[in-house]
Amino acid sequence: SAGKFHTTDSAAQKYMWESWKAEYGKAYDASIEKYRFEIFVENLAVIDERNAAELAVGGEPVHGLTKFTDLKQEEFEARYLLADIAKKTGGAKVSDHPELPE
């Protein structure tokens, strides 16, 4: 069975957080570290939920820690998915009413 990432044990959470920061070279100002840590812990539960869903349909537990584990889903999408599309299109907008050939 898949290992669990989420725990309510605060010492284990802190250990995972410090290990994760070291592995991915992350450092935070004191003002933001608590916020990022809370997101990290929330994402541990999301990882477990997604792996459980994969297993429930006969799949493999493929979700784990990444360099993005300190981001909310919305932050990840805004920074990496939407921003990437804008870069690829040179910021071009898609018209609602394209000119059609006659």
UniProtKB/TrEMBL annotation:
Q: Which domain of life is it from?
A: Eukaryota
**Domain Cathepsin propeptide inhibitor spans what residues?**
17-76
> InterPro entries of this UniProt entry?
Papain-like_cys_pep_sf, Prot_inhib_I29
Pfam families reported for this sequence: Inhibitor_I29
High-level lineage: Eukaryota, Sar, Stramenopiles, Ochrophyta, Dictyochophyceae
Provide the coiled-coil residue spans: none
Where does this protein come from, organism-wise?
A: Florenciella parvula
Query: Gene3D superfamilies attached here?
Result: 1.10.287.2250
Q: What is this protein called?
A: Cathepsin propeptide inhibitor domain-containing protein
